[in-house]
## 1
Amino acid sequence: MARTPPEEDRRPGEFELISRYFAPLASKVPGALGLGDDAALLTPLPGTELVLTTDVLIESVHFLRDDPPDTIARKALRVNLSDLAAKGAQPAGYLLVLALAPWAGTEWIERFAYGLGADQNRYGIGLLGGDTAATPGPLSVAITAIGTVPAGAMLKRSGAKPGDIVFVSGTIGDAGAGLDILRGRAAGGETVRSALIARYRLPEPRLSLGRALRGRASAALDVSDGLLGDLGHIAEVSGVAIVVEASCLPLSTELVRFYGESMETRSTAATAGDDYEIAFTAPASSAAEIEAAAAESGTPVTAIGRVEAGQGVRLLDAAGVQIPVRRAGYTHF
Ligand code: ADP
Ligand code: MG
């Protein structure tokens, strides 16, 4: 993509940009009013509650200028849908705030909007509104997603009890390995590398699992900053300790090919970011219920540990000895 002269000069004006690229994404949502009003309207069904979440993606922090614009858009949407998934919510729509840097021209915006359109169809939602501004940079994309749950059914981080089992969906560490590859780590064959990079670029929000966990999980959250660090949030808010068995962590064959099978690989996977899986707890008596939820949603779920009285998160090896971890997860500050 050309960097000079500034693409900004060749960009349509703000209103044309909205009507050409974003209004079509709102066409199937009556409450978006064609993106022609000051605000959008949403009518929750009686007996439902709205679940609101927002996440920002910033150039050089969450994505790189050269990343494919359609995957930047899809990831921005999916990380929000992942939060809704972890709360057991059904997505209803989203708002988009774009701060466009000079380097992002018409072609970038077109491909960005194309990516959003593709995922909107995939998840059955539409654009409700947003805001668009020019910035000297970096470019940022903020999405606010809105979902619904039957009143009282939202899954929370609080609610884990001593004796509960700890579960996680899918496999963990893949996206972290994908980022490692993009940063230049050379290992594994071509298919392994592209599978891991794909998991970094395009997380899969576990929406149907989240819905199936309503009334079944005692606590849940989406794993975005590292499994152990994120489980630490459940432990803290629920006032409990969480113990994770390293040998139980679900690892993909690609991850094992890339890093090799070792305890080091397991602790790396347990602290790497961008998984966008759901970690949750449930009473030991509801193991069959959780199996049913996994089967109903077609999402693999693995028991990885237990909740105890106390505080904090510990990772144990097969002999029950605590594995020291350098940091439990990613933090910005
Ligand atoms: P305001 O003057 O209140 O900022 P705008 O002129 O920015 O309003 O927005 C006009 C309409 O276009 C609104 O309905 C707004 O939600 C929508 N809109 C603006 N930017 C975006 C965007 N990036 N994505 C979706 N909708 C947008
Ligand atoms: Mg505006």
## 2
Amino acid sequence: MNIIIVKDALEGGKKGLELFENALNNGAEVIGLATGSTPITFYNEVKNSNLDLSDKISINLDEYCGVANDHPQSYHYFMQKNLFDVKPFKESYVPDGANTNEEEACGAYNTILEENPIDFQILGIGTNGHIGFNEPGSPFNSVTRKVDLTPATIEANARFFESEADVPKFAYSMGIKNITDAKEIVLFAYGKNKQEAVKSLVEGAVTEDFPASILQNHDNVTIIIDEEASALLK
Ligand code: GLP
């Protein structure tokens, strides 16, 4: 695991762009994308770059269930606003949270992932160690499926909704296996409230109780963290 400590999220976004450009120069075609507040500085750098992504494919990690694709809190909408409006890809995939047929929605997504292996995967991390929406206890061999969001995640994401009651309770998420199948992974984490998660990610036991810990076993992972998030590391 390569660790890059930066001053702040702005600098983290710039570092992320360097790694992304490097991957593209080495032939990356399929890019795994994440939502959340953390990757936004990276997306801003991509938007301000002269990169042309119109012949690339993007595949997002997850989507809330039961939320229309044009709902302002959907991850479809997030990606459109934060990246795709300015930097369109040839094809962009996000799980179809509006499809109530779990088997169909997740099966189709797993097929997309099989046909388009991810070259470069962006990740954030939840304070409980979730990546995508793979909450603690997610099997390391999991693929895209419907997942229950934990009370901690519902509470953490309530800030984006009018009230906690409006936060979806389920999501379709790529599984841990889909994520770790990516050739290269870059995870961003910033701020004091990610300190404990970063410590477990880097120095903790590899366990399904802390899903992101599996990244310790991957041979091409870089974590980009700011000084605050790195404060508990030995
Ligand atoms: C969400 C997303 C994750 C993201 C995490 C952290 O639940 N499904 O992909 O990494 O929250 O979000 P933030 O970057 O806003 O802290």
